[in-house]
Design brief:
about 425 residues, alpha/beta, Rossmann fold, seven-stranded mixed beta sheet, five-stranded mixed beta sheet, globular, binds 1,4-dihydronicotinamide adenine dinucleotide, binds 2-oxoglutaric acid, glutamate dehydrogenase (NAD+) activity
Length: about 425
């Protein structure tokens, strides 16, 4: 791999650089991509090719509300790249999701799949809706209509969705059923993250958090910190955050702070995570009013002194404004894009090891791959087998990136982009580009 050390010791990357739009995850993605492209000496054409999504689909989703009124929502699916195989990535329901954000999330999926070595390209979907405002019936109609609008995009050999923020296994079951009705056969492999009874995989629900913890333990080991001697703060208490917190707790770590959209909860003696999970389950998935802790703000959580900070909520949480105040030794990115590109060099200067999203949260897509394989074979694995293979693949990915990091004296995030983009670029070269 071509390498010129001066490029990033004296180049634009170390300078304050052009002010990026903190609100733009796509710009954050591109900024890191540019750096990797320089390291790899990608030519301009290759850069443009890999930076551009293959397909962007925007649909309107009209549904009849329980009141009898019609409302129209906007939905997206972006296929960023499918050189390595069918595209793969979750569907997000959020009132503020944009096509631009989905573009970034889809590109991250491309690099992520390359890093964990699963034979998929990258995609992501989104619907601009606050699902909490919909009844179950409205949510089902919305999901079915979105899927119907994407029938030509989705497919077990084309594009395979999965859960992301505010979507879950019930929503995946509706996607599978709608697609199957139109295919005139049951097509379980069209979507992953389904209920186990419908062809889902053991371990998928916990896979992202489990992967976060595997790489966190590897990072702690590199720093010579024992898991049972470390303190942890977790932002976000949904699928990824709650499982990461629970598995760190089971490792003997002291999880001193957790948070969700209702705010942060701090206990210097450590929070009883199984009890907090039970509390959230009984309170409509919210920590609001959690009694065994002092209420703090999400900002206070991010800035508290701890060994491991796991941002597992959403993008742009650690940015140019607050990066200088982060007091963790390791940041393990459970969420996609929780640290902006503007914050990267600030964290690097503080000596904080960032385990980047495209490695740290890749456990989800890894077990989605296992689910797809199981569905296609019609032969299902035990949870023990799933977890063992997941741990192995995450650990291998961590070791590969650590090697690139050491070889080029770059950060783990830079190594992740270099590794992932190199693999996709090499695939393109071998496949060729003549239509
Ligand atoms: N579910 C999965 O398998 C995967 C998810 N991810 C990423 O992990 C992140 C979280 O996803 P999930 O856990 O699936 O979503 P989720 O919908 O299950 O949970 C999201 C959590 O974040 C909290 N939250 C939202 N805004 C917040 C804010 N401003 N401050 C603090 N907390 C806030 C919510 O209250 C909730 O507890 C997202 O970035 C997603 O893209 C990444 C890989 C796979
Ligand atoms: O499980 C999958 O296919 C994708 C999960 C996802 O959306 C992500 O890793 O961001």
């Amino acid at each position: 791999m071509p390498y010129n050390k001066n490029m990033y010791t004296t180049g634009y990357y170390k300078e304050p650089g052009p002010k990026l739009d903190e609100e733009s995850p796509f710009e954050s993605m591109l900024e890191r991509f540019r750096f990797a492209a320089e390291v790899l000496e990608l030519d301009e054409g290759m850069f443009q090719y890999l930076a551009s999504p293959v397909k962007q689909v925007t649909v309107s989703i009209p549904i009849v509300m329980d009141s009898g009124d019609i409302r129209v929502f906007e939905g997206y699916r972006v296929i960023h790249n499918n050189l390595l195989g069918p595209s793969k990535g979750g569907i997000r329901y959020a009132p503020d999701v944009t096509l631009e954000e989905v573009n970034a999330l889809a590109a991250w999926m491309t690099w992520k799949c390359a890093i964990v070595n699963v034979p998929f390209g990258g995609a992501k979907g989104g619907v601009r809706v606050d699902p909490k405002q919909l009844s179950d019936g409205e949510l089902e109609r919305l999901t079915r209509r979105y899927t119907a609008n994407m029938l030509e995009v989705f497919g077990p050999d084309r594009d395979i969705p999965a859960p992301d923020m505010n979507t879950n296994e019930q929503i995946m079951a509706w996607v599978m059923d709608t697609y199957s009705m139109n295919a005139h056969k049951t097509e379980t492999a069209v979507v992953t993250g389904k209920p186990i009874i419908l062809g889902g995989s053991h371990g998928r629900k916990e896979a992202t958090g489990r992967g976060v913890v595997t790489v966190t333990l590897a990072a702690l080991n590199k720093m010579g910190i024992l898991p049972n001697k470390c303190t942890v703060a977790v932002q976000g208490f949904g699928n990824v955050g709650s499982v990461s917190a629970k598995l760190m707790y089971e490792q003997g770590a002291k999880v001193v702070a957790i948070s969700d959209i209702s705010g942060g909860y701090y206990n210097e003696n450590g929070i009883d995570i199984p009890a907090a999970i039970e509390y959230a389950k009984e309170n409509d998935n919210s920590l609001e009013g959690y009694p065994e802790a002092e209420k703090i703000s999400n900002e206070e959580l991010l800035q508290m002194e701890c060994d491991v900070l796991i941002p597992a909520a959403k993008e742009d949480q650690i940015n140019r404004e607050n990066a200088g105040n982060i007091n963790a030794k390791i940041i393990a990115e459970g969420a996609n894009g929780p640290v902006t590109a503007n914050a990267d060099s600030i964290l690097e200067d503080k000596g904080i090891m960032v385990v980047p999203d495209i490695l740290a949260n890749a456990g989800g897509v890894t077990v989605s791959y296992f689910e797809w394989v199981q569905d296609r074979q019609g032969y299902f694995w035990t949870e023990e087998r799933v977890n063992r293979r997941l741990n192995r693949m995450m650990r291998n990915a961590f070791d590969n990136l650590f090697e690139v990091r050491n070889e080029y004296d770059i950060t783990l995030r830079q190594a992740a982009y270099v590794f992932g983009i190199n693999k996709v670029a090499m695939t393109l070269k071998l496949r060729g580009l003549y239509a």
